[in-house]
Amino acid sequence: MTPTSAERGRDARERLLTAAAELIPELGWNAVSTRVLAERAGVRPGLVHYHFSSLSELLRLAALQVIRQTMDMVGLALSQIDSPEDAVDAMLAQLDAFSGLDPTSVLFAESYLQATRDPELREQFRETTVAFETTVSAFFARHGVDSPGAALTFMAALDGFVLHKALNPDLRAADLAPSLKSILDTERRRT
């Protein structure tokens, strides 16, 4: 059965988003061109601007899609965990899957950097991060840690760990566990 025009359009759009998410960490945000992107996606260059208002919009959407999916996975994992201490262990166990140089880690880093130059990306990234922080804060609050600072500290530690791991691959996420659990315990006693 021959795909319809709408199906071909959806397929081309998805291929472009996938290619952009691959190319950002491979080449760097500013080195992704319409031509390279279209070539990777296996579409004509004109389709980039047919499906997206600009290359910048396409790159923002692709990066934020990966970022949201990653954060949503963490939120889902939190919904299945019974204590903040177990959350620390679970999150840190997942972090060891990231080398700091893997495509997802580099995409996050590239997006953070690009957000300093692109106000629209900065706002959308901020909204995504605030939503994630709200999820983490709500999880902690349900378990007796009712401090927005705890969630922010937790998130910053995870981000920082992945950045440092790119420079020192011998780092282990489990080494952070005692410190993070201590912070949570201190915050729980304060509330």
Automatic annotation (TrEMBL):
<dbReference type="InterPro" id="IPR036271">
    <property type="entry name" value="Tet_transcr_reg_TetR-rel_C_sf"/>
</dbReference>
<keyword id="KW-0804">Transcription</keyword>
<keyword id="KW-0238">DNA-binding</keyword>
<feature type="DNA-binding region" description="H-T-H motif">
    <location>
        <begin position="33"/>
        <end position="52"/>
    </location>
</feature>
<dbReference type="InterPro" id="IPR001647">
    <property type="entry name" value="HTH_TetR"/>
</dbReference>
<dbReference type="InterPro" id="IPR009057">
    <property type="entry name" value="Homeodomain-like_sf"/>
</dbReference>
<dbReference type="InterPro" id="IPR041583">
    <property type="entry name" value="TetR_C_31"/>
</dbReference>
<protein>
    <submittedName>
        <fullName>TetR/AcrR family transcriptional regulator</fullName>
    </submittedName>
</protein>
<dbReference type="Pfam" id="PF00440">
    <property type="entry name" value="TetR_N"/>
</dbReference>
<keyword id="KW-0805">Transcription regulation</keyword>
<feature type="domain" description="HTH tetR-type">
    <location>
        <begin position="10"/>
        <end position="70"/>
    </location>
</feature>
<dbReference type="Pfam" id="PF17940">
    <property type="entry name" value="TetR_C_31"/>
</dbReference>
<dbReference type="InterPro" id="IPR050109">
    <property type="entry name" value="HTH-type_TetR-like_transc_reg"/>
</dbReference>
